[in-house]
Design a protein that fits this description.
Layout (H helix, E strand, L loop, with lengths): L1 E2 L3 E6 L5 E3 L17 E5 L24 E2 L14 E3 L4 H4 L2 E6 L9 H14 L4 E5 L3 H12 L6 E4 L7 H8 L3 E4 L4 H11 L1 H5 L3 E3 L7 H17 L6 E5 L4 H15 L9 E7 L4 H7 L26 H10 L3 E5 L1 H13 L6 H15 L8 E6 L4 H4 L5
Parallel strand pairs: 7-15, 8-9, 8-11, 9-10, 12-13, 12-15, 13-14
Antiparallel strand pairs: 1-5, 2-3, 2-4, 6-7
The structure holds zinc ion.
The site of zinc ion (ZN) has 8 residues, from loops.
Length: 394
């Protein structure tokens, strides 16, 4: 593995700071000036944006990722997920309805894309070990990719109540060093950073928290390239995305921007919809109020673990992507999420609670007329059903 020669720099998403890729001597974290996320910038020729079908999984998109020459077997089974039409529900909703199914990734969720690249980038820049606080699939993915490179165990910190959860068990299965602290992921993160203060400062350990390093965004970006390639000249009018930290939403938009910058725009890009739970909806709140940044809220708890993110460090990037795409943000109730989970299953399409939230959102946006009849709509089903079906009463 080595840095992509087309990678030019990591630029701050909020201030003018730019770090040249040539000058990197240690893993990249947050902006040293303003502590906001950095994002990779490339000099991409048009041929770099064409998938390399002779490679498998994420390696198809190596030329637009920060690292190239991913080892065989590392991420061959990551990404390249299918988009499928949903003819059973399409007429009921009056839509040309499609789903992108991320449950086929090796740990069962879209988190594999970001963590595969985050871990690989950190290793290329000198890290040997990774850590992150988690309340869901991100910790599982980080543990898996640490194991695939034979690294020391990933240091995963979960809220106290997560002991014995499916996420805990999966991290342990992939060899992670799992710890527990605090009542929520923010408190778990604080405890983790205190415990690892010195190795984090020395760059020996990389904090893989959402947007704390630029690799996860690049990995998630591959969803956008896949959607753009799969739909070709008939892009979705809308992409409906369950939004916690928002890496995927920002990443999908970054893909469409990179395509446009290289003169390869596949027509009008899709309008993005950020979906959150009514019980934790900081992005929806900020969008409605016309703010430029997302102000933290106090979560009242949601069954959709991935949406239980009360403070989004890249909130400014999420709001910018929603507005640039002429999109919107919508909050759905816990009852609507549960009902959509069942409706989706009954119609033969398994999903997670987060995926179900996108179906609930589309029901709302059809009722209020935001999405007109006949629109081509793509739902992002970010994980499989296995984790959440155990919480459904039968
Ligand atoms: Zn900055």
């Amino acid at each position: 593995m080595r840095l992509n020669p087309a990678l030019q720099s990591f630029a701050c998403s909020a201030c003018e700071h730019v770090a040249s890729a040539l000058a990197l001597t240690a893993p990249v974290g947050l902006c040293p000036r303003c502590h906001k996320p950095l994002a990779a910038r490339y000099a991409l020729r048009q041929d770099a944006l064409v998938p390399r079908h002779e490679r498998a999984g994420l390696a198809r998109w190596e030329s637009v990722l920060p690292i190239v020459e991913l080892p065989a077997g590392y991420a061959d089974d990551v990404g390249a997920t299918p988009v499928a039409p949903w003819p059973r529900l399409a007429p009921e909703l009056g839509l040309d309805l499609w789903v992108k199914h991320e449950g086929g990734n090796p740990t069962g969720s879209f988190k594999d894309r970001g963590l595969a690249v985050g871990v690989a980038l950190g290793v290329v820049l000198g890290a040997r070990r990774f850590c992150l606080p988690t309340q869901g699939n991100a910790g599982v993915a980080a543990s898996l990719f640490s194991a695939r490179l034979g690294l020391p165990p990933c240091h995963v910190v979960m809220p106290l109540a997560w002991r014995g959860s499916p996420y805990h068990r999966a991290c342990a299965l992939f060899g992670a060093d799992v710890r527990f602290a605090g009542a929520n992921v923010a408190e778990a993160g604080r405890a983790m950073r205190e415990a690892l203060d010195r190795p984090l400062a020395a760059g020996e350990v990389v904090d893989l928290s959402t947007f704390f390093e630029p690799g996860r965004l690049e990995g998630k970006k591959t969803m956008g390239f896949e959607i753009a390639a799969d739909f070709g000249r008939a892009q979705p009018d809308w992409i409906v995305y369950p939004t916690g930290g928002g890496t995927g939403l920002v990443g999908i938009w970054k893909a469409y921007e990179e395509l446009a910058a290289a003169g390869l725009s596949p027509g009008t890009p899709p309008r993005l919809v950020a979906v959150q739970s009514e019980r934790c909806a900081p992005v929806v709140e900020a969008f409605r109020r016309g703010l430029a940044v997302v102000e933290p809220v106090t979560s009242r708890g949601t069954a959709a673990d991935g949406l239980d993110v009360p403070a989004a460090i890249m909130g400014h990037g999420i709001l910018a992507a929603l507005r640039a795409s002429r999109g919107t943000a919508v909050a759905v109730s816990e009852e609507a999420i549960a009902a959509a989970f069942r409706r989706s299953g009954a119609a033969g399409v398994p999903t997670s609670f987060e995926g179900a939230a996108t179906l609930a959102a589309v029901e709302t946006l059809r009722r209020d007329g935001t999405i007109p009849a006949g629109s081509r709509v793509l739902l992002l089903f970010t994980a499989g059903f296995a984790t959440h079906v155990s919480r459904v009463e039968v």
